[in-house]
Amino acid sequence: MTARLGRPLVWVGELGSTNDLARLLAGAGCPEGAVVVADRQTRGRGRQGRVWASPVGGLWCSVLLRPSADSPQGLLSLAVAVAVAETVEQFVPEPAGIRWPNDVEIAGRKVAGILIEATGAAVVVGVGINLNIELQVMPPEVAARAGSLHLIADRPIERRAVLEALLARLADWYSGWAAGGEAVSDAWSSRDLLRGKPVAVLRSGPGIEGVAEGISREGALRIRTTDGAIRQVVAGNVLQVCGPLGPSG
Q: 134, 141, 147, 208: which could form a disulfide with 201 (CB 3.0–4.6 Å)?
């Protein structure tokens, strides 16, 4: 383990959500670097309230951070995504890309997801990585897009080794993020799966259609709409679309 992350380490067999327990630890004054790991989550969740399937065979964990108030908040999820992408690449022979803001994919299949939640002055970073999961145990709508590292590597993946690698990469990128974040946006951009692709953003209010043009230095998704304007998106469900785009919303 790294000296900075993973102390204390709370490892349980079954848990509703590792993020929920980490939030409780934050409220109880647990120090930065505390990590919660579960063999299985019964109420795992992803961004925008989606259910995150978390059967035995994955790495489901949450890290407690206590960043300074002047850190570049919009880039934290991107920094974590880069750390996760670099981690999974240590165990498979394929490169990992990132779909804005922080879905990690290999060969078109999602192998990891991230959920970051603020709790008071602390931040809980939840990471789920599909290690040795048979896709047929997942809901059909999830299995259609999901990947698992053991299928890509054609061998079982050792969970503690992945955890140790993840905490090491997170520690490095957390430090880089806290120092200003410019390296974060550059590293994330090198893995951008949406750049140059037609996309549609679903959100409350009018949607947006256009072509993804990378990210801003603050981590917002830049979209060039059909009228040539650049719109910046900080939240929403971004879908890659096929065929001609209609008028921008």
A: 208
